[in-house]
Amino acid sequence: MSEEVRGLVERYMPEFPVRRCGRVFTDTTQFMDIGHGDVIALGGLHYLVLKDESERRFGMEDPKYWVKRCRELETGERKILKLVFYERFPLRVGEFEVQCYRSPKKESRILDLVADDPRFMHGATRLDDHDNPVRILDIVQGREIGKYVYALKAGHEAYFREHFPAVLDGFLDACEAIGALHAQGEKHGDIRRDHLFVEYGTGQYRWIDFDYTFDFHENPYGLDIFGLGNILIYCAGKQVWNMGNLGEGGFPAETLNGLGPGDHSLVIRNRVVNLRKLFPYIPAELNNVFMHFSQQTEVFYDTVEEFLDELRPCRGLLG
Amino acid sequence: MDFKKVLIAVDGSENSLRAVRYAAAILGGGTGYAVRLVHIERLPERDMFPDESAWSGQCREHSRAMREFLDEAGRVLEAGGLSGGTVCSQYVDSCAARPEGAGDCSHGRNIALEILSIAEREDCGTLVIGRRGVSKAEEFLFGSVSNKLIHHAKDRTVWVVS
Predict the structure, then answer these.
(1) Has residue A135 been placed in a domain?
(2) ipTM, 2 dp
(3) Which residue of A90, A177, A254, B82 has the smallest Cβ count within 10 Å?
(4) Taking CB atoms and an 8 Å limit, are A216 and B48 in contact across chains?
């Protein structure tokens, strides 16, 4: 390690053991070789790598070796560096498999587009010595929407009456952000509960992670709209209600017996979307929005604007 | 609107070739028909390629294959009895692969509406398209050109060939 970097580490992270300091990387192509204690030098700044990011999915830790949690040594700020990883993989959507591609340039383009928009994560792209576009991301300090909603301490009816209106306000704002992306010909690509954060302090809803892309032509924004529907239905139900957990909800037998295939999601077939059958105080107009995602729907939302046109008026029906 | 002006929309698939064969069988024996074969270019998503040259190589390959398909479809129609002079082909380039300021091109965001706008411009009263046979869930996620055509085509006859 160079004296310069050693000096920076000692200055900004005196608690970091200097003996753990590793190599300095200016070419990030071999991202698997970059680990804890290494430094990535980009655009005159230095990023001390603390660890690889990971996702917890289906109870398993899923490391993302190309995403590094770092400390920018010159400022002391925490950053996430996304290194270039051209990956093509099948994404499971209900019973379908969708060919998905991880595109650094798409994410860079959107980062530039939303640089002044608080509804998205922020960051900048810097080229390394091998011309890899590395995305340097500010960390969104907040909580995933799913965890945020689930953790609100209230039974469903109290939650729905007291908390859900504010959640819906934030969600509407988040939907408008996606509509603005679409209007500029871009899609988020990976809309799900753990990619929408409620920021601590401000309560601002912010989208993260938009590097997925797909080769859809006739309905380029269909997956984004599907994702928005899933989040909305989760938030209204305070959790996912499916065949596996309905028994824990304390619903009367006639309610459970009254659920048919048409009450379930069109794409994720064991998931209940007709929440009004479980929670009769949910307004019919709001439930009608959910039903556009059900097996019985004959009409789909083609655009976020169409979805919002029916969802916005529902806000007035809540407290 | 002239119902004898027939627009056949093709995408290079077996389903669209089936639609061409069907149209040849129905129209071939008649007189006064004018058939327009239309392909709206659907280039692969640019972001799915690590660099511009990989993407443009794939685009060229796509374009070559689709122009061959249009030629093949034209031959099918002629073999069915439509004379060469009554069949024309139209390849609508994607705007993504065109220089700024180029003429008519496809943004590829709603292929059904682009087909309809050509039908309007060319006064085609009959539209022919192959059906992929997608489920409702697939249509919801990925869209369906034939269903959108059915929903949006006003005052026109639509043949959806399964």
Answers:
(1) no
(2) 0.82
(3) A254
(4) no
